[in-house]
Design a protein that fits this description.
InterPro entries: CCDC90-like. With about 180 residues, this protein is mainly alpha-helical. The chain has three helices and no strands. The model has no long low-confidence stretch (mean pLDDT about 90).
Length: about 180
């Protein structure tokens, strides 16, 4: 195993900074052990190029198998989906026809109801117009009767007034004759 730094230069550096030779060598040997342990850990997780190529070939063959399965599944699923889609289209067309028939029926019922209501309203208006005309005739007749009665009472009052005036004149003339 190679070390990519100079251990003797590190020992010299530590000695120039106040460590003894023995302390410097112990520190460097501990440092080398730590690095070796770390490298062992790293090498355990690493694979060689040959192992990597074998794993890649296994993954590629597995992917090819999955791809074939997906193509087969896709074809079978696609045909199943296509037939299901056709069934749904037919059902939708039937439902659409039923909805159109129901809408036509509802429209016809509504037109019939509307025409019946119109005829009822017209009949009601005709009845109201007849009742109003009859009421107007009655009112006109009553007014005419009242006018006739008023005229007859006027004449009677004029007669009584004329009679009263003549009676008063007669009484006054009678008193006048008596006084004269």
């Amino acid at each position: 195993r190679r070390l990519y730094f100079d251990t003797h230069a590190l020992v010299c550096l530590l000695e120039t900074n106040g460590f003894t030779t023995q302390q410097s060598e112990v520190i460097v040997s501990a440092f080398v052990k730590i690095m070796n342990t770390n490298l062992d850990m790293i090498y355990k997780d690493m694979v060689t190029k040959l192992q990597q190529e074998i794993a890649l070939q296994q993954v590629m063959s597995h992917i090819a198998g999955v791809k074939k399965d997906m193509i087969i599944l896709e074809k079978s699923e696609f045909s199943a989906l296509r037939s299901e889609n056709e069934k749904i289209k037919l059902e939708l067309q039937q439902i659409k026809k039923q909805v159109v028939d129901e809408i036509t029926k509802v429209r016809a019922d509504n037109k019939l109801n509307l025409n019946l209501e119109k005829s009822r309203v017209k009949e009601l208006h005709a009845q109201q117009d007849r009742a109003l005309t009859q009421t107007d005739r009655k009112i006109d007749t009553e007014v005419a009767d009242l006018k006739t009665m008023l005229e007859s009472h006027k004449l009677d009052n004029i007669k009584y007034l004329a009679g009263s005036v003549f009676t008063c004149l007669t009484v006054a003339l009678g008193f006048y004759r008596l006084w004269i």
